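Here is one chain, start to finish.
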Amino acid sequence: MKRACLLKAAALLAGLPLVAGCVASGATPPHARFVQANVNPIIADGSYYSADPAPLVADGKLYIIAGRDEAPPGVNDFIMKQWQMLVTEDVAGGRWLHYPDILRPEQVFAWAARGR
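Its structure:
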């Protein structure tokens, strides 16, 4: 449990400079897609599963950084090949931008196995 909390904190800290840089420069990470969702989970069609979300509010926008759990059905394992980000200026309106691949574990942690 303690290790999982440490990993979550490390991932959040690693992703914050990316988000802060995008906010400061007005740049957007590549490969965004629009999502309309007034429900929880935000992406409810099963195309992306998120794990351990970390919210950040800056300049009137809500950013949610979350892992993408890719373990297949029936596999009890931790397979997170990337982190994703959801961004909105209007939570009640349900208009989100989804950036499915903003960071990968091997870009942050030297010990992380690629694609695992």
